[in-house]
């Protein structure tokens, strides 16, 4: 599979799906759901220029420290010693992929709506914590080193998850009073289908093809644990 990918006989998307499968990740287990990277950092421009390296996220860094400002807080957390010596050191107390995160992204489509309601003791979580905007979700990642969610494969092929086709009442945001309905898209996307089309093109772009292995090292490779993980600020609780 690696050789096929290097020879460009399979796409970046296919290669990531195969890696997830080999790693034991599956659509049948929300706790081991396939994980995909955030690949863009530009969610505000009117047009998306895939020839400009500045629109892409730095794939060599864990999502928690893509914003350099967060690195200091992350290092401080790692240097904290557990007085009882029970807990191993870590940079992040949460994880880049978990069941709650999958339900967070897929809340508008069943069976994830029902699963989310069950998780929240029979009701929807408060509107401000819902997945309501792609630009706002990215900004929250940049501002908060404790939020380290990567993406799920649906961001590259499934426009329906961005629409509230079932008309669920997801509440309204506290400050702006905006009703949470369809997911707010980046300015450069004119519809959910347009977002998926451009996002998938970004995944298959030259820049991502040249740097995807750096992210794979963090999630599936030698930077998952040990000294390489510590150096890469990539140790999870």
TrEMBL record:
GO terms for cellular component: cytosol; membrane. Residues 1-237 form the BEACH domain. InterPro entries: BEACH_dom, BEACH_dom_sf, BEACH_Domain. Gene3D superfamilies: BEACH domain (1.10.1540.10). CDD domains: Beach. It comes from the Eukaryota. GO terms for biological process: intracellular protein localization. GO terms for molecular function: protein kinase binding. Keywords: Repeat, WD repeat. This is NBEL1 protein. The gene is Nbeal1_0.
